[in-house]
């Protein structure tokens, strides 16, 4: 990890971001609204949590057949993905609410997914959002099991088939939390000399361990003790829930950065990226058009360009801001990468998987 050595150049850059930031500020001033989430976001958060917890409660009631419980596990997977994209994502960026305890509450819903808040904030908020698509720094594209998502990763023969098996591996995303969080905590603590990465304290390690135990009780022990499900039936439901959630979450995130037109710039020998940070975000990030209902469910992540430029603004505002961002980018002759549909974005991602799988 070399995050402390990568810098962005501010020399000879346009006034794109100062102008854009001024226009965005004017939008909120004219509308007299907060940049944070509103009441509708709180209701969305409660809805997504219900999508996860109500099926869980029905399973624990022990009133349904194993096949119905399997269907409920799929709904739990949808709820897990919904919480991840539309609830905890905003909350961990500090954009869910202006009320601290509400933000902290919805931020902690990540524990219901089996994840860890501090790990997420380091990997996602700090490393991914600062060093988007930079090899060895952005962990979202670097060093993935059997996947080559970065031109900087080693090329193996099996990668030529990754466009076929990638989506199965994407389903393992939330399952990986159960192991990955411990590896990340160890790695981040080793890099405590970095100004960007906060090392895990004894309290943080205690929270990590306790949260995994509580998650094990929540997701495994209680269903096995309170229902007539066999271990095999429970295991099938557990895997189906995680595969559903992981497939949705990973796919949506991949459509933002591993598609055609999303660059993977490499720092020069002095660790310098030759563009300013905001322009780097435009070059490495993509939007995709999708139905309003899908956009609602995925937490506005179809507007990833706006999210990367303004991560502390709630996603409920991104659709309106997208017109301002696109217009300003065009004025400064800068890219604004948007795929014309969700399925076009999927095809673009598959084509990129093929390129990365065959081109060394």
Automatic annotation (TrEMBL):
The organism's place on the tree of life at top rank: Bacteria
Gene Ontology biological-process entries: lipid biosynthetic process
Molecular function GO terms recorded: oxidoreductase activity, acting on paired donors, with oxidation of a pair of donors resulting in the reduction of molecular oxygen to two molecules of water
One GO cellular component term: membrane
Residue ranges constituting the Fatty acid desaturase domain according to the UniProt record: 66-338
Pfam families for the chain: FA_desaturase
TM regions (residue ranges): 41-58, 64-87, 99-118, 164-182, 203-225, 231-253
This protein's UniProt keywords: Membrane, Transmembrane, Transmembrane helix
Family annotation (InterPro entries): FA_desaturase_dom, Fatty_acid_desaturase
PANTHER family the UniProt entry points to: DELTA(5) FATTY ACID DESATURASE C-RELATED, FATTY ACID DESATURASE 2
UniProt-recorded name of the protein: Linoleoyl-CoA desaturase
